[in-house]
Design goal:
The complex is a heterodimer. Chain A has a domain at 2-117 and 208-293: P-loop containing nucleotide triphosphate hydrolases (Rossmann fold). Chain A is an alpha/beta fold. The longest helix of chain A is centred in the middle third of the chain and has 14 residues, at 192-205. In chain A, α2 (30-37) packs across α9 (222-235), α5 packs across α6 (162-172) and α8 (192-205) packs parallel to α9. Chain A starts with a helix and ends in a 5-residue tail after the last helix. In chain A, the strands form two sheets. In chain A, strands 6-7-8-3-9-10 form a six-stranded mixed beta sheet, with helices on both faces. In chain A, β9 and β10 (269-276) form a beta hairpin. Chain A is globular. Chain A has helices spanning 2-12, 30-37, 87-93, 124-130, 145-155, 162-172, 176-179, 192-205, 222-235, 248-254, 277-282, 287-293, and strands spanning 47-58, 61-72, 76-80, 104-112, 115-116, 131-134, 210-214, 240-244, 257-263, 269-276. Chain B is mostly helical. Chain B has two domains: 2-53; 58-293, MetI-like (MetI-like fold), CATH 1.10.3720. Chain B has helices at residues 2-50, 56-60, 73-104, 109-121, 126-140, 147-171, 175-183, 188-217, 220-225, 245-253, 259-293. In chain B, α3 (73-104) crosses α10. The A-B interface holds A 95, 97, 100, 102, 125-126, 128-130, 132-133, 135, 137, 139-144, 151-152, 155-156, 186-188, 199, 202-203, 205-206 and B 106-107, 174, 176-187, 190, 194-195, 199, 293-295.
Chain lengths: 298, 295
């Protein structure tokens, strides 16, 4: 089944060969199959986030220009593009992480359940509890593995037995078996890949609806990267995932939808194409997308 | 090919460079030793002069007109009272100010002015603080020559030091930790309280103890606000009058009788002992917090 999939794709687009690592697909990446057969429309299961004419400024500098997209529920949406095109800025708009930057200003709407995240009466703290985030570099707290997961649960006053929540979250992040005997040890003693999965467990523990991942694998080796990708495919049945990546293979492997961003002439980030991942990688409509995914620049 | 280049170079040039390297090595070693030797000489002379005079009677005795009967109890307790109250006033205010400036304040011109002023305040001569304390605490607030007036003055004196040290401690916590806490739905205060303050604690504590170590040796501002040299009792409350170790020592050194020189040396030994114990406490606390931090 999978083999056929891939062959068809290769026949359609011979230049895809270096981008989609065919050999991984049968065994180690159950995710690819799911990604490859996803239906076309983000609105299928409804969208959970809607971006409408989002413009972002840092002082006088416009970082994002007229971004429109919708994030499908229980789907993985990848944002790709060359360095400096505003991918990270965009994903940080989705849970108001950009508020920390003093000169930041957003125009337009980010709708989450019909509410604009940037309207005045929205509390960014609640936004971040419901829309979690995993960062580029694993950033566990300098505390025990247990406390890393428990922190968010505690401060949010989530009810339930803490031990169970911690175990459930670590299991969901595919880390439980590796750490169950050393929960009281420092999280910093874990390997980079384990730390990143711990950060995912930490995000899961507060039961968010969406998990944002800002280049979650860029500091990891290929094997750890594969594990995270597998994990993402498992998690997407419960959560909605948005991932920023500068790794096109990764976007092709894990995502259902892909947004391609580029820098405009005034250096503002704009979205040149957004749609079904397969469509983007096999039959890009925009000339710049094609140039980018075939490696002609970026 | 490359060995040839090396051989060409080694002859004169490397020998020349090595002379300079050794020269500077020696210069820097001397610079290091200068302070240590001076300290050692000081400790040894003071020790030789004063150690024989240090006894339980000396520590537990009150000042006297007679050198051999003079004790240091009132000054020692005065110092404890003063330090304790200074810490109680200066630490919450100083750390609070540092947290505000580092974690909450908007980066605008007002914050910049405040920051510059705090840095400048750290360099103001202590006697100016004494005058300020005299004018405000002693006169206007009517606290008279009390421990409280002294502690408030000392708190002012060490506030800038504590703020600067605490800010550095807070800044040593990487921004990624704050992001991590905020991203799981922590409020800014929860982020500071549970994730930023604990790892910053060792550096903050070190700063606090260093600031208190500076305060413990300060004499000028206390003389200005009227801490007395001859106090024959232990302070019984914040409004009691008091004296402190350096003032007592200064008083003894200015006596004409040669026996008081020995008494003064003994006082210095006690002052140094207090100072070193404070630093030891700082080290222990720092180690404790660092072990808890799991870095």
């Amino acid at each position: 089944m999978v083999d056929q999939e891939v062959e068809v794709r290769e026949a359609e687009a011979p230049y895809m060969r270096p981008i989609l690592p065919v050999t991984h697909s049968e065994t180690s990446l159950p995710g690819l199959k799911m990604g490859a057969v996803t239906a076309a429309d983000p609105a299928d299961e409804g969208s959970v986030l809607e971006l409408k004419d989002l413009n972002v400024f840092y002082g006088n500098f416009q970082a994002l220009k007229d971004i429109n997209m919708s994030i499908g529920r229980h789907r993985i949406t990848a944002i790709i593009g060359p360095s400096g095109c505003g991918k990270s800025t965009l994903i940080r708009c989705l849970n108001r992480m950009n508020d920390l930057i003093p000169s930041f200003r957003a125009q337009g709407e980010v709708l989450f359940e019909q509410q604009n995240l940037y309207s005045r009466d929205i509390d960014p703290v609640e936004v971040r509890q419901r829309i979690g985030m995993v960062f580029q570099k694993p950033n566990p707290f300098p505390k025990s593995i247990y406390d890393n997961v428990a922190f968010g649960v505690r401060i949010n006053g989530i009810k339930g037995k803490m031990d169970e929540i911690v175990e459930k979250s670590l299991r969901a992040a595919a880390l439980w078996d590796e750490v169950k005997d050393k929960l009281s040890q420092s999280a910093l003693a874990l390997s980079g890949g384990q730390q990143q999965r711990l950060c995912i467990a930490r995000a899961i523990a507060v039961e968010p609806e969406i998990i944002l991942m800002d280049e979650p694998c860029s500091a990891l080796d290929p094997i750890a990267t594969l594990r995270i990708e597998e994990l993402m495919r498992e998690l997407v049945s419960t959560y909605t995932i948005v991932i920023v990546t500068h790794n096109m293979q990764q976007a092709a492997r894990v995502s259902d939808f892909t947004a391609v961003m580029m820098m405009s002439e005034e250096r503002a980030g704009e979205m040149v194409e957004f749609g079904d991942t397969r469509e983007i990688f096999t039959n890009p409509k925009d000339r710049r997308t094609e140039d980018y995914i075939t490696g002609r620049f970026g | 090919m490359s060995t040839q280049t090396l051989a060409y170079d080694t002859a004169g040039r490397n020998a020349y460079r090595r002379v300079w390297a050794r020269l500077f090595h020696t210069v820097f070693l001397c610079a290091t030793l200068f302070g240590i030797v001076a300290l050692a000489v000081l400790l040894i002379t003071v020790g030789l002069d004063g150690l024989g005079r240090v006894s339980w009677d000396f520590i537990n005795g009150y000042p006297s007109r007679f050198a051999e009967r003079a004790g240091i109890k009132s000054a020692l307790f005065g110092t404890f009272w003063l330090m304790g109250m200074t810490a109680m006033i200066a630490v919450p205010i100083g750390v609070g100010a540092a947290i505000y400036l580092e974690e909450f304040a908007a980066r605008n011109w007002l914050t910049k002015i405040i920051e510059t002023n705090i840095n400048n305040l750290a360099g103001v001569p202590s006697i100016i603080y004494g005058l300020l304390g005299l004018a405000i605490f002693v006169r206007v607030m009517g606290l008279d020559r009390s421990v409280l007036a002294g502690a408030l003055t000392m708190a002012l004196l060490i506030l800038p030091i504590i703020i600067v040290a605490a800010r550095e401690g807070l800044r040593s916590v990487p921004p990624s930790i704050r992001e991590a806490a905020l991203a799981v739905g922590a409020t800014p205060w929860q982020t500071v309280r549970f994730q930023v303050l604990p790892p910053a604690m060792p550096m903050i504590l070190t700063g606090v103890i260093l600031a208190l170590s500076r305060a413990i040796g300060e004499t000028a501002p206390l003389i200005i606000i009227g801490a007395l040299a001859f106090v024959a009792f232990v302070p019984d409350g914040p409004l009691s009058s008091f004296t402190v170790l350096p003032i007592q020592i200064y008083n003894w050194t200015s006596r004409p009788q040669p026996e008081f020189a020995q008494t003064a040396a003994a006082g210095i030994v006690v002052l140094l002992a207090v100072l070193l114990s404070m630093n030891a406490v700082a080290v222990i606390l720092r180690n404790y917090f660092e072990r808890k931090r799991k870095w």
